[in-house]
Amino acid sequence: MRHQVRPSDEELWSSIAAGDELAFGRLFDRYSRPVYNHAFRLTGSWSTAEDVTQATFLVAWRRRHDARLVDGSALPWLLVVATNTARSEWRSARRWLALLRRLPAERYADGDLAEDVSARLDDERRMTEVLSVVRGLSPADREAVALCLWSGVSYPDAAAVLGISEVAVRSRVSRARSRLARLMPEEIQEGKR
Amino acid sequence: MNDILDLPAERDLPPEAAHAMRARLLGVASPPPARTPRLRIAVAVAALLTVASGAAAVMWGRPNPSTVQVLATGAGELSPTLRNATERCLQWNSPQRQTRQDPEERPVPVSLADLAVATERGDRALVLFMNDVGYATCDVEGAGTPRESGGGATEPWPHGEWLPGPVQRLLLTSTEHDGGDISVSGRVSSRVDRLVLDHGDGRSTTARLSGGAFGLMTSDARLKAGNDPELVSYDAHGTEIDRRPLFQAEDQLEHCYAGPDGKRIYGKPTSDCRPAEKWRR
After folding, report:
1. Nearest to B44 by CA among B19, B72, B63, B22
2. Across the interface, which of A21, A89, A184 has its CB nearest the CB of B26?
3. Is beta strand B223-224 parallel, antiparallel or unpaired with respect to B204-206?
4. In this predicted model, what pLDDT tens digit does every residue of A159-177 receive, in sequence order?
5. Among B224, B114, B226, B246, which residue's Cα sits nearest to residue B169?
6. Among residues A23, A79, A89, B134, which is most buried (max CB within 10 A)?
7. How many whole angstroms separate alpha carbon A81 and alpha carbon A59?
8. In this complex, which of B3, B29, B180 lies closest to A188 when CB atoms are compared?
9. Any chain A CB within 8 A of the CB of B161?
10. pLDDT, tens digit, for every residue of B139-167?
C-alpha cells in the first residue's frame, strides 16, 4: 500500500529556507491558484495576475528567511505579498512588469481555448466594474476587503500577517462594507441579478 | 452588499503558463553554477572588448565578476550578454506587446538604434532606449538563459523635454521589497555632470551618464529603505545641485516643478515650485 504524507506549510517553509527548490515547487503547486485569483481580483486582468503571481513567488523565494507563517499557513503572507506587488508603482496603467518572461499571449489563439478566452474577457469586464467601485475605498480598507471578503482569510490571520489588531481588521471590513453599500451603483447590482 | 462578493469564479492558471512559470521560478531558486575561471576570463574579455570599442568599463574593488560593471552607450558597443539583454528588452517592448498590455495607450516603438545606455553587473543588465516618442527600459537578469527574469517600463515622454529638476528616474527595480541591490535608469539635464547614489550608510555608487541618460546598478549594496538612500546630482564644479529620495515615487515628488512660464508641470500644487529643467540628448 502506498500513501503520501502531505508536508505542512511549516515543514515546507523550513526546507525552503534551507534552499530546497523542490519544496519551493511544492509551495507553488499548493498556492499558485489562490495567489493567481487574488491577484486577478486586485487588478481585474488575468494577464496581469500572471505577472503578479510570478512576482509574488519570486519575492517569496528571495524573502524566504523572513516570511511569516500565520497559524501554520503560508497563504496569508503570500496574499499580502501579492497585494503589495499589485499595488506597487509598476502597476500603474502606463507601466508594465514582466518579472519573469511570460509565454506569448498568442497561445490563446488556439481554437480549443477560444471559449476560455471569451469567459476570461467576461470576468475582466465584471471585475473592472467591481474595482471601479472598490477604488472609492482607502488602500487599507481595500486590502481588508481583498484579503478577508474575497480571499477568505480569517480576521485573526489577516491581523497577524498585516501586523495590526483583529479589532482593526474587523473595523476596516465593517467600514468598507458600509461604504461599498453606498458606492455601489444600481447598474452594477442589476447587471448581476 | 452581497453583490460586491459576487465576483467572477476562480480559475486555474492556464496549464502551459503554470508549467512555464513553475520551471522558471525553480530556475531562479536553483543554486547558481559555480563561477569557473573560464567565466571570469569571459567577463574580463567582454570588459576589455568594450574598452577597445570606446565605451567605459570600470573595475571595482574586488576581482569578482559580479562587481565588474560594463557600460555601453550604443548598439556597436554591446557585449554578448548586453546584446541578449537589449534584444530581450526590445521583445518585451514590442508595439504588439505594449498594445496587449494597455490597448488604450499609444505604443512607443523602440529599436536598437534608440539604445541610450546599457550597463551590466554579473548576469544582471540594465538597458534604456529613448527616442522622440518616449522610452523603454528594462532590468534583465540571466538574459538568454533559462534563469532569465526581469522587469521594465515604457511610456511616451510624460512631459516631453521637461524634467522634474535635474534628474528624472524612469525605472527602479530592487531585489528586496525594501532595498537590497537596485537598478535605476533615467535622464538628466545638461547641468548634471555627476550623479551619485548615496546609500545612506556612508557608501555611495556613481551612475553612468551618457547623452542625457543614466544607468546605475549596485552590487552587494544591501540598501535599506530605512536608511533613506538618495540620488544626488552635482554640476561640473562639483557643487551639489539636487538631492532626492531614491524610493520616492515619481508621482509623489517632494516639490512641484514649473516651466519658464510658471505653469506647473510636475508634482502636486504648492506655492514654491522649483524650475523644471530642459532635457537634451
Report:
1. B63
2. A21
3. unpaired
4. 988 889 999 999 999 999 8
5. B246
6. A79
7. 8
8. B3
9. no
10. 888 777 766 777 777 888 878 889 999 99
Of A29, A23, A27, A18, give the one whose Cα is nearest residue A65: A18
Quote the CA–CA distance of A56 and A46 in Å, as a whole number: 15
Global confidence as pTM: 0.49
Give which of B5, B7, B154 to mutate to test A binding, by max A Cβ within 10 Å. Answer: B7
**Structural contact between residues A11 and A26, judged by C-beta atoms closer than 8 angstroms:** no
Which B residues, 223 through 252, put their C-beta within 8 Å of a C-beta on chain A?
Answer: 249-251
**Is the distance from CB of B204 to CB of B198 less than 8 angstroms?**
yes
Q: Does B154 touch chain A (CB under 8 A)?
A: yes
| C-alpha dihedral sign at A109, A111, A116, A118 | positive
Residue with the three cell numbers 493567481? A36
User: At which residue does the C-alpha cell 499557513 appear?
Assistant: A73
Instruction: Give A63-120 as a DSSP string.
Output: TTTS---BTTBSHHHHHHHHHHHHHSGGGSTT----SBPPPPGGGGGSGGGHHHHHHH
Report the DSSP beta bridge partners of residue A147.
none
> Do A36 and B11 count as a contact with CB atoms less than 8 A apart?
yes
Interface contacts (A, B; CB < 8 Å): 142
| Sequence-separated (6 or more) residues with CB below 8 Å from residue A190 | none
- Please indicate whether, in this complex, the C-beta atoms of B13 and A94 are within 8 angstroms of each other: no
β partners of residue A21: none
DSSP SS3 for B259: coil
What is the residue-averaged pLDDT of chain B? 76
Q: Which helix (H) or strand (E) holds A58?
A: helix A46-62
pLDDT band for A154, please (50, 70, 90 cuts).
very high
Cα B141 to Cα B127: distance, rounded to the nearest angstrom = 11
Contact (CB<8Å) A126/B17 = no
The one-letter code for the residue type at B158 is P
Please tell me if residue B113 touches chain A, with a CB cutoff of 8 Å: no
Nearest Cα to Cα of residue B164 among B187, B182, B185: B187
DSSP codes joined into one string, B31-82: PPPPPPHHHHHHHHHHHHHHHHTT--EEE-SS--GGGEEEEESSGGG--HHH
Of B3, B22, B101, the CB nearest to A184: B3
Minimum-distance CB partner of B152 among A25, A96, A123: A96
Cβ-in-10-Å burial (0-12, 13-18, 19+) of B217 comes to buried
Residue type at A146 in one-letter notation: A
